[in-house]
Protein backbone atom coordinates (compact mmCIF):
# COMPACT_ATOMS: atom_id res chain seq x y z
CA UNK A 1 0.00 0.00 0.00
CA UNK A 2 2.88 2.39 0.83
CA UNK A 3 5.58 2.14 -1.77
CA UNK A 4 8.96 3.86 -1.94
CA UNK A 5 10.56 4.00 -5.38
CA UNK A 6 14.22 5.00 -5.28
CA UNK A 7 13.29 7.59 -2.70
CA UNK A 8 16.29 9.76 -1.83
CA UNK A 9 15.95 12.08 1.15
CA UNK A 10 18.15 15.00 1.98
CA UNK A 11 18.62 18.66 1.33
CA UNK A 12 19.57 20.69 -1.67
CA UNK A 13 22.95 22.29 -0.98
CA UNK A 14 25.89 21.44 1.19
CA UNK A 15 24.09 18.93 3.42
CA UNK A 16 23.22 16.90 0.35
CA UNK A 17 21.84 13.39 0.41
CA UNK A 18 20.99 12.10 3.88
CA UNK A 19 19.51 8.72 3.05
CA UNK A 20 20.46 6.97 -0.23
CA UNK A 21 17.79 5.79 -2.70
CA UNK A 22 15.55 3.14 -1.22
CA UNK A 23 12.81 1.01 -2.75
CA UNK A 24 10.42 -1.02 -0.67
CA UNK A 25 6.74 -1.48 0.00
CA UNK A 26 4.58 -1.87 3.08
CA UNK A 27 1.21 -3.54 3.44
CA UNK A 28 -1.84 -2.43 5.37
CA UNK A 29 -1.44 -3.19 9.06
CA UNK A 30 2.38 -3.07 9.02
CA UNK A 31 3.98 -1.72 12.16
CA UNK A 32 7.51 -0.53 11.42
CA UNK A 33 10.19 0.82 13.72
CA UNK A 34 12.82 3.10 12.24
CA UNK A 35 16.03 2.81 14.22
CA UNK A 36 19.32 4.60 13.98
CA UNK A 37 21.86 6.67 15.88
CA UNK A 38 21.29 10.37 16.53
CA UNK A 39 21.67 12.31 13.31
CA UNK A 40 21.53 9.20 11.14
CA UNK A 41 18.71 10.73 9.11
CA UNK A 42 15.60 9.09 10.55
CA UNK A 43 13.71 12.37 10.81
CA UNK A 44 14.73 13.50 7.33
CA UNK A 45 13.56 10.19 5.89
CA UNK A 46 10.24 10.32 7.72
CA UNK A 47 9.61 13.96 6.82
CA UNK A 48 10.27 13.07 3.20
CA UNK A 49 7.84 10.14 3.27
CA UNK A 50 5.20 12.33 4.92
CA UNK A 51 5.57 14.93 2.19
CA UNK A 52 6.71 17.60 4.64
CA UNK A 53 9.89 18.08 2.63
CA UNK A 54 10.55 17.31 -1.04
CA UNK A 55 12.48 14.18 -1.99
CA UNK A 56 15.81 14.71 -3.77
CA UNK A 57 14.74 12.05 -6.25
CA UNK A 58 12.38 9.10 -6.49
CA UNK A 59 8.84 8.92 -5.24
CA UNK A 60 6.67 7.75 -2.38
CA UNK A 61 3.29 6.34 -3.33
CA UNK A 62 0.28 5.58 -1.21
CA UNK A 63 -2.25 3.24 -2.81
CA UNK A 64 -0.60 4.02 -6.14
CA UNK A 65 -0.85 7.79 -5.71
CA UNK A 66 2.27 9.92 -5.44
CA UNK A 67 2.38 11.56 -2.02
CA UNK A 68 4.26 14.72 -3.09
CA UNK A 69 1.75 15.22 -5.90
CA UNK A 70 -1.27 15.16 -3.54
CA UNK A 71 -3.05 18.35 -2.62
CA UNK A 72 -2.29 19.43 0.92
CA UNK A 73 -5.78 18.38 2.00
CA UNK A 74 -5.53 14.94 0.39
CA UNK A 75 -2.15 14.46 2.01
CA UNK A 76 -3.51 15.47 5.40
CA UNK A 77 -6.28 12.90 4.97
CA UNK A 78 -3.74 10.21 4.05
CA UNK A 79 -0.84 10.77 6.43
CA UNK A 80 -0.81 12.01 10.00
CA UNK A 81 2.34 13.06 11.76
CA UNK A 82 3.47 13.23 15.37
CA UNK A 83 6.84 14.79 16.08
CA UNK A 84 9.05 15.52 19.06
CA UNK A 85 8.37 19.26 18.71
CA UNK A 86 7.33 20.45 22.12
CA UNK A 87 4.06 22.18 21.39
CA UNK A 88 2.99 24.91 23.74
CA UNK A 89 -0.33 26.55 23.14
CA UNK A 90 -1.76 28.66 25.94
CA UNK A 91 -5.51 28.45 26.06
CA UNK A 92 -5.92 25.25 24.07
CA UNK A 93 -7.55 22.36 25.89
CA UNK A 94 -6.26 18.88 25.12
CA UNK A 95 -9.67 18.28 23.58
CA UNK A 96 -9.13 21.25 21.21
CA UNK A 97 -5.85 19.74 20.09
CA UNK A 98 -7.47 16.38 19.34
CA UNK A 99 -10.31 18.09 17.49
CA UNK A 100 -7.77 19.86 15.26
CA UNK A 101 -7.06 16.39 13.86
CA UNK A 102 -10.38 16.64 12.02
CA UNK A 103 -9.34 19.79 10.14
CA UNK A 104 -8.61 17.99 6.86
CA UNK A 105 -12.29 16.99 6.77
CA UNK A 106 -14.16 19.98 8.17
CA UNK A 107 -15.69 22.92 6.30
CA UNK A 108 -14.05 26.35 5.99
CA UNK A 109 -15.11 27.24 9.52
CA UNK A 110 -13.61 24.08 10.96
CA UNK A 111 -17.04 23.04 12.27
CA UNK A 112 -17.29 19.49 13.61
CA UNK A 113 -20.17 17.26 12.53
CA UNK A 114 -21.60 14.62 14.85
CA UNK A 115 -19.52 12.07 12.98
CA UNK A 116 -16.36 14.12 13.59
CA UNK A 117 -17.19 14.32 17.27
CA UNK A 118 -17.64 10.57 17.61
CA UNK A 119 -14.35 9.97 15.75
CA UNK A 120 -12.62 12.40 18.13
CA UNK A 121 -14.11 10.60 21.12
CA UNK A 122 -13.08 7.20 19.81
CA UNK A 123 -9.51 8.41 19.13
CA UNK A 124 -9.32 9.96 22.59
CA UNK A 125 -10.39 6.65 24.10
CA UNK A 126 -8.00 4.60 21.94
CA UNK A 127 -5.03 6.73 22.96
CA UNK A 128 -5.99 6.55 26.62
CA UNK A 129 -6.46 10.31 26.79
CA UNK A 130 -10.03 10.48 28.11
CA UNK A 131 -9.07 11.95 31.47
CA UNK A 132 -6.66 14.38 29.80
CA UNK A 133 -9.15 15.80 27.30
CA UNK A 134 -10.74 18.48 29.51
CA UNK A 135 -7.41 19.78 30.83
CA UNK A 136 -5.42 22.69 29.41
CA UNK A 137 -2.88 21.23 27.02
CA UNK A 138 -0.06 23.26 28.57
CA UNK A 139 -0.70 21.77 32.01
CA UNK A 140 0.09 18.23 30.83
CA UNK A 141 3.35 16.36 31.32
CA UNK A 142 5.47 15.43 28.31
CA UNK A 143 4.11 11.89 28.26
CA UNK A 144 0.53 13.11 28.52
CA UNK A 145 1.09 15.58 25.69
CA UNK A 146 2.38 12.78 23.48
CA UNK A 147 -0.75 10.82 24.26
CA UNK A 148 -2.90 13.76 23.22
CA UNK A 149 -0.89 14.27 20.05
CA UNK A 150 -1.33 10.56 19.24
CA UNK A 151 -5.07 10.88 19.84
CA UNK A 152 -5.05 13.83 17.44
CA UNK A 153 -3.20 11.74 14.84
CA UNK A 154 -5.71 8.88 15.29
CA UNK A 155 -8.57 11.35 14.88
CA UNK A 156 -7.08 12.30 11.54
CA UNK A 157 -8.11 8.77 10.36
CA UNK A 158 -5.27 8.62 7.86
CA UNK A 159 -4.00 5.44 6.22
CA UNK A 160 -0.46 6.11 7.45
CA UNK A 161 0.76 7.33 10.83
CA UNK A 162 4.28 8.70 11.00
CA UNK A 163 5.60 9.17 14.51
CA UNK A 164 9.05 10.65 14.98
CA UNK A 165 10.86 9.80 18.24
CA UNK A 166 7.73 10.36 20.23
CA UNK A 167 8.80 7.97 22.97
CA UNK A 168 12.05 9.85 23.67
CA UNK A 169 10.72 11.62 26.77
CA UNK A 170 8.94 8.63 28.24
CA UNK A 171 10.04 6.11 30.83
CA UNK A 172 10.18 2.42 29.94
CA UNK A 173 6.59 1.45 30.92
CA UNK A 174 5.36 4.54 29.10
CA UNK A 175 7.28 3.59 25.99
CA UNK A 176 6.03 0.02 26.02
CA UNK A 177 2.48 1.22 26.50
CA UNK A 178 2.61 3.66 23.60
CA UNK A 179 4.27 1.20 21.27
CA UNK A 180 1.84 -1.57 22.16
CA UNK A 181 -1.04 0.84 21.60
CA UNK A 182 0.24 1.74 18.13
CA UNK A 183 0.89 -1.86 17.20
CA UNK A 184 -2.62 -2.80 18.25
CA UNK A 185 -3.99 0.12 16.24
CA UNK A 186 -2.08 -0.97 13.12
CA UNK A 187 -3.26 -4.57 13.43
CA UNK A 188 -6.88 -3.78 14.21
CA UNK A 189 -7.49 -1.02 11.70
CA UNK A 190 -5.09 -1.95 8.90
CA UNK A 191 -3.21 1.33 9.13
CA UNK A 192 0.50 1.57 8.44
CA UNK A 193 2.44 2.85 11.44
CA UNK A 194 5.98 4.19 11.02
CA UNK A 195 7.64 4.87 14.34
CA UNK A 196 11.17 6.08 14.77
CA UNK A 197 12.93 5.53 18.08
CA UNK A 198 16.25 4.82 19.73
CA UNK A 199 14.81 1.81 21.41
CA UNK A 200 16.32 -1.09 19.53
CA UNK A 201 15.76 -3.79 22.14
CA UNK A 202 12.12 -2.89 22.61
CA UNK A 203 11.56 -2.66 18.87
CA UNK A 204 12.98 -6.15 18.35
CA UNK A 205 10.27 -7.48 20.64
CA UNK A 206 7.36 -5.59 19.14
CA UNK A 207 7.67 -5.12 15.40
CA UNK A 208 7.31 -7.22 12.30
CA UNK A 209 9.59 -5.03 10.26
CA UNK A 210 12.57 -2.95 11.25
CA UNK A 211 14.23 -0.16 9.30
CA UNK A 212 17.80 0.66 10.25
CA UNK A 213 19.30 3.91 9.06
CA UNK A 214 23.09 3.87 9.16
CA UNK A 215 25.76 5.67 7.14
CA UNK A 216 23.20 7.11 4.74
CA UNK A 217 21.69 3.74 3.98
CA UNK A 218 18.39 2.20 4.93
CA UNK A 219 18.39 -1.55 5.67
CA UNK A 220 15.05 -3.21 6.22
CA UNK A 221 13.71 -6.61 7.11
CA UNK A 222 12.36 -8.67 9.97
CA UNK A 223 14.26 -8.33 13.27
CA UNK A 224 15.58 -11.87 12.89
CA UNK A 225 16.91 -11.26 9.40
CA UNK A 226 18.63 -8.04 10.45
CA UNK A 227 20.21 -9.74 13.44
CA UNK A 228 21.43 -12.64 11.31
CA UNK A 229 23.05 -10.50 8.62
CA UNK A 230 24.83 -8.32 11.19
CA UNK A 231 23.31 -4.96 10.22
CA UNK A 232 22.52 -4.12 13.82
CA UNK A 233 26.07 -4.65 15.02
CA UNK A 234 27.36 -2.51 12.18
CA UNK A 235 25.01 0.33 13.01
CA UNK A 236 25.36 0.44 16.76
CA UNK A 237 28.53 -1.18 18.02
CA UNK A 238 31.33 0.99 19.33
CA UNK A 239 34.29 0.50 21.63
CA UNK A 240 32.14 0.45 24.75
CA UNK A 241 29.03 -1.43 23.79
CA UNK A 242 28.16 -4.18 21.38
CA UNK A 243 25.02 -6.01 20.35
CA UNK A 244 24.75 -9.62 21.38
CA UNK A 245 22.62 -11.46 18.78
CA UNK A 246 21.97 -14.45 21.03
CA UNK A 247 20.55 -12.37 23.90
CA UNK A 248 19.03 -9.73 21.55
CA UNK A 249 20.40 -6.95 23.68
CA UNK A 250 23.39 -4.66 24.12
CA UNK A 251 26.18 -5.63 26.46
CA UNK A 252 29.07 -3.57 27.82
CA UNK A 253 32.42 -4.55 26.37
CA UNK A 254 34.72 -5.85 29.05
CA UNK A 255 38.04 -4.19 28.39
CA UNK B 1 -5.55 21.32 38.47
CA UNK B 2 -9.30 21.36 38.51
CA UNK B 3 -10.98 18.31 37.11
CA UNK B 4 -14.15 19.98 35.96
CA UNK B 5 -15.31 18.49 32.69
CA UNK B 6 -16.50 21.30 30.52
CA UNK B 7 -18.92 20.17 27.84
CA UNK B 8 -18.31 21.81 24.48
CA UNK B 9 -21.72 23.47 24.39
CA UNK B 10 -21.03 25.34 27.63
CA UNK B 11 -18.37 27.35 25.81
CA UNK B 12 -20.76 28.50 23.12
CA UNK B 13 -23.15 29.39 25.84
CA UNK B 14 -20.77 31.67 27.70
CA UNK B 15 -19.67 33.25 24.42
CA UNK B 16 -23.27 33.99 23.53
CA UNK B 17 -23.96 35.61 26.86
CA UNK B 18 -20.76 37.65 26.54
CA UNK B 19 -21.71 38.81 23.04
CA UNK B 20 -25.11 39.91 24.30
CA UNK B 21 -23.55 41.77 27.24
CA UNK B 22 -21.00 43.45 24.97
CA UNK B 23 -23.71 44.63 22.56
CA UNK B 24 -25.78 45.94 25.46
CA UNK B 25 -22.79 47.76 27.00
CA UNK B 26 -21.82 49.21 23.63
CA UNK B 27 -25.36 50.56 23.24
CA UNK B 28 -25.29 52.09 26.72
CA UNK B 29 -21.86 53.70 26.30
CA UNK B 30 -22.79 54.97 22.84
CA UNK B 31 -25.96 56.60 24.16
CA UNK B 32 -23.98 58.11 27.00
CA UNK B 33 -21.33 59.52 24.66
CA UNK B 34 -23.95 60.93 22.31
CA UNK B 35 -25.86 62.71 25.04
CA UNK B 36 -23.14 63.64 27.50
CA UNK B 37 -20.26 66.09 27.06
CA UNK B 38 -19.68 69.85 27.24
CA UNK B 39 -23.30 70.17 26.19
CA UNK B 40 -25.65 67.72 27.83
CA UNK B 41 -28.46 66.52 25.59
CA UNK B 42 -31.54 64.74 26.87
CA UNK B 43 -33.08 61.80 25.08
CA UNK B 44 -35.64 64.08 23.39
CA UNK B 45 -33.00 66.37 21.86
CA UNK B 46 -30.92 63.36 20.87
CA UNK B 47 -33.86 61.84 19.02
CA UNK B 48 -34.60 65.20 17.38
CA UNK B 49 -31.01 65.49 16.25
CA UNK B 50 -31.15 62.14 14.53
CA UNK B 51 -34.70 62.01 13.20
CA UNK B 52 -35.78 65.65 12.70
CA UNK B 53 -32.58 67.63 12.22
CA UNK B 54 -34.38 70.95 11.46
CA UNK B 55 -36.12 71.23 14.81
CA UNK B 56 -32.93 71.53 16.89
CA UNK B 57 -29.96 72.78 14.82
CA UNK B 58 -27.53 73.01 17.74
CA UNK B 59 -28.15 69.49 18.97
CA UNK B 60 -28.08 68.26 15.39
CA UNK B 61 -24.69 69.81 14.79
CA UNK B 62 -23.22 68.43 18.00
CA UNK B 63 -24.55 64.94 17.44
CA UNK B 64 -24.13 64.52 13.69
CA UNK B 65 -20.87 66.39 13.19
CA UNK B 66 -19.03 65.64 16.40
CA UNK B 67 -20.31 62.83 18.53
CA UNK B 68 -21.73 60.36 16.03
CA UNK B 69 -18.56 60.23 13.87
CA UNK B 70 -16.51 59.85 17.05
CA UNK B 71 -18.59 56.92 18.29
CA UNK B 72 -18.51 55.22 14.89
CA UNK B 73 -14.76 55.76 14.59
CA UNK B 74 -14.20 54.33 18.05
CA UNK B 75 -16.36 51.28 17.32
CA UNK B 76 -14.69 50.56 13.99
CA UNK B 77 -11.15 51.23 15.19
CA UNK B 78 -11.60 49.24 18.40
CA UNK B 79 -13.05 46.26 16.55
CA UNK B 80 -10.30 46.38 13.91
CA UNK B 81 -7.56 46.57 16.52
CA UNK B 82 -9.08 43.76 18.58
CA UNK B 83 -9.29 41.40 15.60
CA UNK B 84 -5.82 42.37 14.39
CA UNK B 85 -4.50 41.48 17.85
CA UNK B 86 -6.00 37.98 17.60
CA UNK B 87 -4.39 37.52 14.18
CA UNK B 88 -1.00 38.88 15.26
CA UNK B 89 -0.84 36.70 18.36
CA UNK B 90 -1.66 33.59 16.36
CA UNK B 91 0.65 34.48 13.49
CA UNK B 92 3.66 35.29 15.65
CA UNK B 93 2.75 32.60 18.21
CA UNK B 94 3.37 35.32 20.78
CA UNK B 95 0.79 36.39 23.38
CA UNK B 96 2.32 39.88 23.49
CA UNK B 97 2.10 40.51 19.75
CA UNK B 98 -0.13 43.26 18.42
CA UNK B 99 0.08 45.92 15.76
CA UNK B 100 1.15 48.51 18.28
CA UNK B 101 3.59 46.45 20.37
CA UNK B 102 5.41 45.14 17.29
CA UNK B 103 5.75 48.60 15.78
CA UNK B 104 3.27 48.25 12.90
CA UNK B 105 1.33 51.31 14.02
CA UNK B 106 4.62 53.22 14.10
CA UNK B 107 5.21 52.15 10.51
CA UNK B 108 1.81 53.49 9.52
CA UNK B 109 2.47 56.72 11.37
CA UNK B 110 5.76 57.18 9.58
CA UNK B 111 4.11 56.48 6.23
CA UNK B 112 1.49 59.17 6.83
CA UNK B 113 4.07 61.63 8.17
CA UNK B 114 6.25 61.17 5.10
CA UNK B 115 3.33 61.69 2.72
CA UNK B 116 2.22 64.84 4.49
CA UNK B 117 5.76 66.19 4.63
CA UNK B 118 6.45 65.40 1.00
CA UNK B 119 3.29 67.27 0.12
CA UNK B 120 4.29 70.19 2.32
CA UNK B 121 7.63 70.53 0.58
CA UNK B 122 6.12 70.08 -2.85
CA UNK B 123 4.11 73.24 -2.35
CA UNK B 124 0.56 74.53 -2.05
CA UNK B 125 -0.71 72.58 -5.06
CA UNK B 126 0.27 69.31 -3.40
CA UNK B 127 -1.33 70.43 -0.14
CA UNK B 128 -4.52 71.25 -1.99
CA UNK B 129 -4.38 67.87 -3.69
CA UNK B 130 -3.77 66.15 -0.38
CA UNK B 131 -6.65 68.00 1.25
CA UNK B 132 -8.97 66.94 -1.56
CA UNK B 133 -7.80 63.35 -1.59
CA UNK B 134 -6.91 63.24 2.05
CA UNK B 135 -8.64 59.92 2.67
CA UNK B 136 -6.93 57.97 -0.07
CA UNK B 137 -3.57 59.67 0.47
CA UNK B 138 -3.40 59.09 4.20
CA UNK B 139 -4.76 55.56 4.09
CA UNK B 140 -2.36 54.48 1.36
CA UNK B 141 0.56 56.10 3.18
CA UNK B 142 -0.38 54.17 6.28
CA UNK B 143 -0.91 50.95 4.27
CA UNK B 144 2.60 51.13 2.84
CA UNK B 145 4.14 52.01 6.20
CA UNK B 146 2.35 49.24 8.09
CA UNK B 147 3.13 46.69 5.39
CA UNK B 148 6.85 47.53 5.37
CA UNK B 149 7.14 47.33 9.15
CA UNK B 150 5.06 44.13 9.23
CA UNK B 151 7.44 42.50 6.75
CA UNK B 152 10.36 43.67 8.85
CA UNK B 153 8.95 42.13 12.02
CA UNK B 154 8.19 38.83 10.28
CA UNK B 155 11.82 38.57 9.17
CA UNK B 156 13.04 39.57 12.61
CA UNK B 157 10.73 37.12 14.40
CA UNK B 158 12.63 34.21 12.81
CA UNK B 159 15.82 35.32 14.55
CA UNK B 160 14.86 36.61 17.97
CA UNK B 161 12.67 35.49 20.86
CA UNK B 162 9.29 36.71 22.03
CA UNK B 163 10.43 39.38 24.45
CA UNK B 164 13.23 40.71 22.25
CA UNK B 165 10.75 41.14 19.42
CA UNK B 166 8.43 43.02 21.74
CA UNK B 167 11.13 45.40 22.95
CA UNK B 168 12.30 46.02 19.39
CA UNK B 169 8.72 46.79 18.37
CA UNK B 170 8.18 49.24 21.22
CA UNK B 171 11.52 50.92 20.49
CA UNK B 172 10.50 51.27 16.85
CA UNK B 173 7.44 53.10 18.15
CA UNK B 174 9.54 55.55 20.13
CA UNK B 175 11.93 56.04 17.23
CA UNK B 176 9.10 56.88 14.90
CA UNK B 177 7.52 59.28 17.40
CA UNK B 178 10.86 61.09 17.57
CA UNK B 179 11.21 61.10 13.80
CA UNK B 180 7.68 62.39 13.34
CA UNK B 181 8.35 65.24 15.77
CA UNK B 182 11.54 66.16 13.90
CA UNK B 183 9.80 65.97 10.55
CA UNK B 184 6.96 68.15 11.85
CA UNK B 185 9.54 70.64 13.09
CA UNK B 186 10.86 71.14 9.58
CA UNK B 187 7.64 70.65 7.70
CA UNK B 188 5.27 73.41 6.76
CA UNK B 189 2.74 74.27 9.41
CA UNK B 190 -0.05 73.44 7.02
CA UNK B 191 1.30 69.95 6.62
CA UNK B 192 1.73 69.52 10.33
CA UNK B 193 -1.89 70.43 10.91
CA UNK B 194 -3.06 67.25 9.19
CA UNK B 195 -1.96 65.19 12.12
CA UNK B 196 -2.00 67.57 15.04
CA UNK B 197 -2.25 65.87 18.38
CA UNK B 198 -1.69 62.65 16.60
CA UNK B 199 0.82 60.87 18.79
CA UNK B 200 -1.84 60.48 21.46
CA UNK B 201 -4.49 58.74 19.45
CA UNK B 202 -7.96 60.17 19.01
CA UNK B 203 -11.30 59.19 17.54
CA UNK B 204 -12.39 62.83 17.27
CA UNK B 205 -10.56 63.77 14.06
CA UNK B 206 -12.77 61.88 11.62
CA UNK B 207 -15.79 63.01 9.64
CA UNK B 208 -18.49 60.89 8.06
CA UNK B 209 -16.64 61.12 4.74
CA UNK B 210 -13.48 59.73 6.31
CA UNK B 211 -15.37 56.77 7.70
CA UNK B 212 -15.79 55.35 4.19
CA UNK B 213 -12.04 55.13 3.79
CA UNK B 214 -11.79 53.36 7.13
CA UNK B 215 -14.64 50.93 6.61
CA UNK B 216 -13.69 49.57 3.18
CA UNK B 217 -10.18 48.28 4.02
CA UNK B 218 -11.25 47.17 7.49
CA UNK B 219 -14.18 45.17 6.10
CA UNK B 220 -11.82 43.52 3.61
CA UNK B 221 -9.38 42.73 6.41
CA UNK B 222 -12.17 41.27 8.50
CA UNK B 223 -13.29 38.96 5.69
CA UNK B 224 -9.74 37.69 5.20
CA UNK B 225 -9.42 37.24 8.96
CA UNK B 226 -12.53 35.06 9.10
CA UNK B 227 -11.38 33.06 6.09
CA UNK B 228 -7.94 32.48 7.66
CA UNK B 229 -9.29 31.48 11.06
CA UNK B 230 -9.30 27.71 10.48
CA UNK B 231 -5.70 27.67 9.26
CA UNK B 232 -4.58 29.90 12.10
CA UNK B 233 -6.10 27.48 14.60
CA UNK B 234 -3.90 24.69 13.21
CA UNK B 235 -0.90 27.02 13.35
CA UNK B 236 -1.36 27.09 17.14
CA UNK B 237 0.33 23.68 17.09
CA UNK B 238 3.33 25.00 15.17
CA UNK B 239 4.24 24.99 11.51
CA UNK B 240 4.96 21.27 11.09
CA UNK B 241 1.62 20.20 12.56
CA UNK B 242 -0.22 22.91 10.64
CA UNK B 243 1.23 21.59 7.39
CA UNK B 244 0.50 17.98 8.32
CA UNK B 245 -3.11 19.05 8.89
CA UNK B 246 -3.31 20.36 5.34
CA UNK B 247 -2.70 24.06 5.96
CA UNK B 248 -0.72 25.93 3.34
CA UNK B 249 1.36 27.78 5.90
CA UNK B 250 3.15 30.09 3.50
CA UNK B 251 -0.09 31.35 1.95
CA UNK B 252 -1.74 31.61 5.35
CA UNK B 253 1.09 33.84 6.62
CA UNK B 254 0.72 36.26 3.71
CA UNK B 255 -3.06 36.34 3.94
CA UNK B 256 -3.04 36.98 7.67
CA UNK B 257 -0.40 39.64 7.40
CA UNK B 258 -2.43 41.25 4.61
CA UNK B 259 -5.51 41.20 6.84
CA UNK B 260 -3.57 42.82 9.69
CA UNK B 261 -2.31 45.58 7.38
CA UNK B 262 -5.83 46.24 6.07
CA UNK B 263 -7.28 46.33 9.58
CA UNK B 264 -4.63 48.47 11.14
CA UNK B 265 -3.53 50.97 8.49
CA UNK B 266 -6.81 52.93 8.33
CA UNK B 267 -6.91 53.16 12.11
CA UNK B 268 -3.40 54.60 12.16
CA UNK B 269 -4.21 57.01 9.34
CA UNK B 270 -7.25 58.50 11.08
CA UNK B 271 -6.78 57.89 14.79
CA UNK B 272 -3.02 57.76 15.28
CA UNK B 273 -1.31 55.01 17.23
CA UNK B 274 -4.09 53.68 19.46
CA UNK B 275 -2.27 51.63 22.07
CA UNK B 276 -3.02 48.48 24.09
CA UNK B 277 -6.43 47.55 22.60
CA UNK B 278 -5.01 44.97 20.18
CA UNK B 279 -2.68 43.64 22.84
CA UNK B 280 -5.10 42.97 25.68
CA UNK B 281 -8.42 42.33 23.97
CA UNK B 282 -7.46 38.88 22.59
CA UNK B 283 -6.70 37.78 26.15
CA UNK B 284 -10.19 38.81 27.26
CA UNK B 285 -11.65 36.98 24.26
CA UNK B 286 -9.74 33.79 25.06
CA UNK B 287 -10.79 33.96 28.70
CA UNK B 288 -14.45 34.26 27.67
CA UNK B 289 -14.40 31.67 24.90
CA UNK B 290 -12.29 29.31 27.06
CA UNK B 291 -10.34 28.32 23.98
CA UNK B 292 -7.70 29.80 21.74
CA UNK B 293 -9.18 28.41 18.53
CA UNK B 294 -9.33 31.49 16.34
CA UNK B 295 -12.82 31.68 14.84
CA UNK B 296 -14.81 32.01 18.10
CA UNK B 297 -12.37 34.72 19.20
CA UNK B 298 -13.02 37.05 16.28
CA UNK B 299 -16.50 38.32 17.24
CA UNK B 300 -15.51 38.49 20.92
CA UNK B 301 -12.33 40.43 20.17
CA UNK B 302 -14.16 42.77 17.80
CA UNK B 303 -16.90 43.56 20.31
CA UNK B 304 -14.68 43.89 23.36
CA UNK B 305 -12.24 46.02 21.35
CA UNK B 306 -15.08 48.28 20.23
CA UNK B 307 -16.40 48.55 23.78
CA UNK B 308 -12.99 49.31 25.27
CA UNK B 309 -12.38 51.95 22.59
CA UNK B 310 -15.62 53.88 23.08
CA UNK B 311 -15.50 53.52 26.86
CA UNK B 312 -11.99 55.03 26.97
CA UNK B 313 -13.15 57.72 24.57
CA UNK B 314 -16.16 58.45 26.77
CA UNK B 315 -13.88 59.09 29.74
CA UNK B 316 -11.69 61.41 27.65
CA UNK B 317 -14.66 63.47 26.55
CA UNK B 318 -16.40 63.88 29.88
CA UNK B 319 -17.01 67.60 30.51
CA UNK B 320 -13.70 68.18 32.29
CA UNK B 321 -12.66 71.69 33.36
CA UNK B 322 -9.53 71.39 31.28
CA UNK B 323 -8.69 69.04 28.45
CA UNK B 324 -5.58 67.15 29.44
CA UNK B 325 -6.78 63.59 29.12
CA UNK B 326 -5.91 61.65 25.98
CA UNK B 327 -7.19 58.38 24.65
CA UNK B 328 -3.86 56.62 25.06
CA UNK B 329 -3.61 57.84 28.65
CA UNK B 330 -6.78 55.99 29.56
CA UNK B 331 -5.80 52.93 27.53
CA UNK B 332 -2.38 52.83 29.20
CA UNK B 333 -3.93 52.97 32.67
CA UNK B 334 -6.12 49.98 31.79
CA UNK B 335 -3.74 48.15 29.47
CA UNK B 336 -0.31 48.38 31.06
CA UNK B 337 -1.29 46.58 34.30
CA UNK B 338 -2.91 43.82 32.24
CA UNK B 339 0.31 43.40 30.27
CA UNK B 340 2.40 43.37 33.44
CA UNK B 341 0.12 40.72 34.94
CA UNK B 342 0.44 38.62 31.76
CA UNK B 343 4.22 38.90 31.82
CA UNK B 344 4.39 37.90 35.47
CA UNK B 345 1.73 35.24 35.69
CA UNK B 346 1.17 33.76 32.24
CA UNK B 347 2.98 30.41 32.08
CA UNK B 348 4.08 30.95 28.47
CA UNK B 349 5.66 34.32 29.14
CA UNK B 350 7.44 33.29 32.31
CA UNK B 351 11.02 32.45 31.53
CA UNK B 352 10.73 33.06 27.80
CA UNK B 353 13.34 35.30 26.27
Describe the structure.
The complex is a heterodimer of chains A (255) and B (353). By secondary structure, chain A is of the alpha/beta class. Chain A has two domains: 2-63 and 159-252, Rossmann fold (3-Layer(aba) Sandwich); 86-157, no CATH class. Helices cover 34% and strands 26% of the residues of chain A. Chain A is globular, with a radius of gyration of 19 Å. The model of chain A has no long low-confidence stretch (mean pLDDT 89). Chain B is an all-alpha fold and 353 residues long. Chain B is 75% helix and 0% strand. Chain B has helices at 8-35, 43-51, 57-91, 104-122, 124-132, 134-157, 162-186, 189-193, 208-235, 239-244, 249-271, 277-289, 294-316, 327-345. Chain B is globular. The A-B interface holds A 50, 52, 72-73, 75-77, 79-81, 83, 85, 87-93, 95-97, 100-101, 103-104, 106, 108-110, 134-136, 138-139, 156 and B 1, 3-6, 8, 95, 227, 229-230, 233-234, 236-238, 240-241, 243-248, 286, 290-293, 295, 346-348.
Task: For the structure shown, list the relevant keywords.
heterodimer; A: 255 residues; alpha/beta; Rossmann fold; 2 domains; 6-stranded mixed sheet; 4-stranded antiparallel sheet; 9 helices; B: 353 residues; mainly alpha; ABC transporter involved in vitamin B12 uptake, BtuC; 14 helices; 0% strand; globular; disordered N terminus
